[in-house]
Amino acid sequence: MFSVLKNLAWFFRLERKRYLIGVTLLIMVGIIELLPPRLLGNAIDEIVRGSITGASLTRYILLILGSVIIIYLTTYIWMHKLFGGANLVERLLRSRFMDHLLRMTPPFFEKNRTGDLMARATNDLRSIATTAGFGMLTLTDSTAFLATVLFAMGFLVSWKLTLAAILPLPFIAIAMMIYGKAVHQRYTLAQDAFGDMNDQVLESIAGIRVVRAYVQERLDEKRFADVTEDVYRKNLAVAKMDALFEPTIRLFVGLSYVIALAYGIYLVFHNEITLGDLVSFNMYLGMMIWPMFAIGELINLMQRGSASLDRVNETLSVEPAVKDVEQPAHITNPEEIAMQDVTFRYPSSTIDNLSHVSFSLRRGQTLGIVGRTGSGKSTLLKQLLHEYPAGSGKLSISGHPIQDIAKDDLHSWIGYVPQEQVLFSKSVRQNIQFGKPGADDGVIMEAIRTAAFDGDLGTLSDGLDTLVGEKGIALSGGQKQRVSLARAFIADPDILILDDALSAVDARTEAKIIENIRNKRSNKTTLISTHRLSAIEHADRIIVLEHGKITEEGTHQELLAMNGWYREQYERQQVESNLST
């Protein structure tokens, strides 16, 4: 049950001063709170004996008021320390969780749903943070404060009455253990259901155009209603178990009151305790109500925190599919890219997605990659990103195997524009600046002109400050591609990878972009995969892929002379181009 605190030991050590002050003051408050009942009991005894005076009554009142003020001030400090620590651990855990996600490779995201990851990054981390704050409070109150009150009852009033009054306590402990186990199981199921709901919402919002185009709004509403019903039922199951904690504790605390009152009156009649002692004892017993509830809350919180921690640790325990070697190679500039007999298969695939691929590309050269849909063009380009475990053969940069190069170094050389453009919910300027943070408008405009997007700025409501919407929804497909290209161009990478990144632009715009690339990247390496052969006519080398294998290879003129697939496709596209003009 306390595994969540054990796993947060690193944080408690890091913030030991904060928690030491907070817990010490919390215990101190518990001790000071014993003073008013004792003072009130003494005052009652003096009243019964008739020995009370104005001076002694004033003294009692001032002592009680003074203790209340001290309790107030001390409580403020420990609450600030403990609950401030909860917010701090939540911030640290969120940062650690996000850092972990950023280090993960595609296989991780293929197995984990976005909605579930969001649930773990929000609800689960919030639950763990609550354990670090409110959990420490309940842990202290259910142990130290409870022990202090029991000590006062037993040694300052009557140990006989104390033993009689605490007879129901073992039954509370048994009930809490049973309830706690059930809460852990049900809360885990509820959080899993919340993750499913998150995922459903994300899919519906991302695919809203498709949903409307196929008139599936009612079906999508029903799917969401089914998911929310499942979340409701599972959270209701947790609530039903939560609801048992307080009545159970009240039942046994009430039984303690009955025992204390009955046996206490008996002891008063037999002069073993005074009436003031009985009043003080009952006030102490009233002070035990919160520690009793704290036991239930503690078990509830710990079980929730433990369930959430299990889910978060499940994510954090996943290692990246590709990790840096202990002593990576140091390369100043990527001079040559070479593949030698590379064969690669995706983890989820049953066949080789690349088979015995070999080529070499020197700095300043351009490689064109063409082939039918599904022939392996994107797979080949992704090998340079090193996001999957390497297959057989050798992929090297400047003579060093890609496995020996630090991923941060590798990615710093590469500008990558994928088939599906990813734009952030910011302005056009901010999206382009992502490639070069802090770039001024002059540099941005130069990248925009290279991407042939300058003519479109006038059509946007606020020019560079136009918000593109989530995933660039406010822009057309061609505009999104060109903003993505400008983002890559502004970084001026040593290696530029265009993965069918010109598919949404017309032939004239494509020709202009290709010409700009040739002029501005004469000393940089470029790899282009495309279905439109006009985009790679200028390439120093062109390879044709079929089922992951290179079937044709050479320059544009050499491939035309082979009279193979490349020539056939080129002539077909030329005819289509002539017909469309």
From TrEMBL:
A GO cellular component annotation in the UniProt record: plasma membrane
Keyword set, alphabetical order: ATP-binding, Cell membrane, Membrane, Nucleotide-binding, Transmembrane, Transmembrane helix, Transport
Segments passing through the bilayer: 20-40, 60-79, 128-155, 161-179, 249-269, 281-301
Predominant location category: membrane
A GO molecular-function annotation: ABC-type oligopeptide transporter activity
ABC transporter domain: residues covered: 337-572
InterPro entries on file: AAA+_ATPase (IPR003593), ABC1_TM_dom (IPR011527), ABC1_TM_sf (IPR036640), ABC_transporter-like_ATP-bd (IPR003439), ABC_transporter-like_CS (IPR017871), P-loop_NTPase (IPR027417), Type_1_exporter (IPR039421)
PANTHER family on file: ATP-BINDING CASSETTE SUB-FAMILY B MEMBER 10, MITOCHONDRIAL (PTHR43394:SF1), ATP-DEPENDENT PERMEASE MDL1, MITOCHONDRIAL (PTHR43394)
Name of the molecule in the record: Multidrug ABC transporter ATP-binding protein
Organism: Paenibacillus xylanivorans
